[in-house]
Amino acid sequence: MILSGTVIADADTVVDDGSVVVEGTRIEAVGRRDELVDRYPDREERSYDILLPGLVGGHIHSVQSLGRGIADDSELLDWLFEYILPMEASLSAEEMEIAAKLGYLELVESGTTTCIDHLSVNHADRAFEAAGEVGIRGLLGKVLMDRRSPDGLAEATDDALAETERLIRKYHGAFDDRIRYAVTPRFAVSCSEACLRGARELADTYDGVRIHTHASENRSEIETVESDTGMRNIHWLDEVGLTGEDVVLAHCVWTDESEREVLAETGTHVTHCPSSNMKLASGVAPVVDYLDRGINVALGNDGPPCNNTLDPFTEMRQGSLLQKVDRLDPVAAPAETLFEMATINGARAAGFDRLGALREGWRADIIGVRTDVTRATPLHDPLSHLVFGAHGDDVVFSMVDGNVLMDDGEVTTVDADAVRERANDVGLSLEEHRDAAAEVRP
Questions:
Q1: Residue in 105, 154, 147 with CA at minimum distance from that of residue 127
Q2: How buried is 403 (Cβ within 10 angstroms: 0-12 exposed, 13-18 middle, 19+ buried)?
Q3: What's the pLDDT at 68?
Q4: 91 and 122 Cβ atoms separated by less than 8 Å
Q5: Average pLDDT of 156-167?
Q6: Contacts for 238 with CB less than 8 Å, ≥ 6 apart
Q7: pLDDT above 90: residue 142
Q8: pLDDT by residue (tens digit) across 334-352?
């Protein structure tokens, strides 16, 4: 297959009249259209306005998709313990599958082809199966919570770790290696030392298994961890083994100088979630400082209840603007930086090689974007448009490993209308659980 249009191979490489040749699961060639069409005369050709690498959601909560709008205007720990955890605890296996499928559907429709997904405590199998069915690439993990956990989510430490190991054996490398496993403690507030150390032991036991958790998102969270351990959050995570090149920490809004040194020295990945941090008034992550230190920073949406959209283009725009206004510096976090955060940086965090750019021999994860819209007229700079002007609903084509997941704006792998209809029915039933008590809140 030949895909033609303005090709944005990476943040530094734009081919105005270009093509990408796909053979099987890989990219066979990238270059000028006229040369590649001549070289491959028998290939089917499809044309799009802009072609770019599939975007990477560096921190997602797909199974929270049913809670969009139920917990607006709340502080993080209120939001979590009074609304989100009771909602997660209430979901049956079938409802969890629908929640995950709805989340993956929105991601694919919006241009995200790879996600680092923080699931829930229960029914993780159903989310893994949903990801396989939709066809998205992902680093997924069952949530670990062995303290300060509401009814329905609390687990004994050994049981939680044993279930994690079962899931690793079943799903790590599943679906032609599109799906891999991340051991996923919720955060230090809801995990004992034994649980956190057990997470590290599991990740070390299985090749390619990573660790994904939240860290230093909110000042109340940090105060709780410091009260529990006598240490700042990042130092505590480092103490129990939850830093390193196989660790993805979401948020890292409130870190001091010594914690940033730990992140840099250990090669720990950070995922920035600008819209979520703004909506929950958590603060502004020091993204420019992280990047200046050589820390790999990815970009994520977080969950729909603290963002209301899984649109990755929204996060690129917000991520740039938030750094500019916070630093009072209009050249901070330019379009190129945010594009890298949403593509190749996210791929590094997820642990997938040859992903996040359009290059010969790399994975054929590609999206096509339309520009026949008023806000793209005139189109002086296609990269600037993608970061500051494009929307997820501009995406009309999506491919993962050479498999077409969306064509002409319609997802091809699942019945999107049926998913939305069932999700709407389940979502309405969540109102019954709004009064669930959150007595375990710190």
A1: 105
A2: middle
A3: 87
A4: yes
A5: 98
A6: 262, 266
A7: yes
A8: 999 999 999 999 999 999 9
Sign of CA dihedral 355, 204, 286, 221: positive
DSSP single-letter state for residue 54: P
- Judged on CB neighbours under 10 Å (0-12, 13-18, 19+), 129 is middle
- The closest of 102, 21, 107 to 405, measured between CA atoms, is 107
Q: Does the pLDDT value for residue 437 go beyond 50?
A: no
Rounded to a whole number of angstroms, the distance between the first and last alpha carbons of the chain is 55
Retrieve residue 86's tokens.
Answer: 């009771």
410-422 average pLDDT score? 97
Q: Is the pLDDT of residue 438 over 90?
A: no
| Paired strand residues for 180 | 139
Burial class, 324, CB count within 10 angstroms (exposed 0-12 / middle 13-18 / buried 19+): middle
- Residue count of the chain: 442
pTM: 0.96
pLDDT at 75: 79
Report d(CA 4, CA 20) in Å as an integer.
6
Flag whether pLDDT at 84 surpasses 90.
no
Q: Which long-range contacts (CB under 8 A, 24 or more apart) does 339-342 make?
A: 339/8, 339/10, 339/11, 339/383, 339/386, 339/387, 340/10, 340/11, 341/58, 341/272, 341/297, 341/298, 341/299, 341/316, 342/55, 342/56, 342/298, 342/299, 342/312, 342/315, 342/316
Task: Name the 3-class secondary structure at 42.
Answer: coil
Q: How many CA atoms lie within 13 A of 92 on its CB side?
A: 6
pLDDT at 435 over 50: no
Separation of alpha carbons 63 and 56, rounded Å: 17
Q: Kindly report the CA angle at 357 between 5 and 352, in degrees rounded to 5?
A: 140
Positive or negative torsion for Cα 391, 395, 399, 403? positive
Strands 13-23 and 2-10: antiparallel
- Helices vs. strands in the chain: H and E counts, helices first: 18, 17
Alpha carbon of 2 to those of 19, 24, 140, 190, 361: distances in Å? 6, 12, 31, 49, 15
Sign of CA dihedral 155, 157, 161, 162: negative
Strand residue runs (E) in 169-300: 179-185, 210-215, 247-251, 269-272, 297-299
* Distance (Å, whole) CA 350 – CA 358: 17
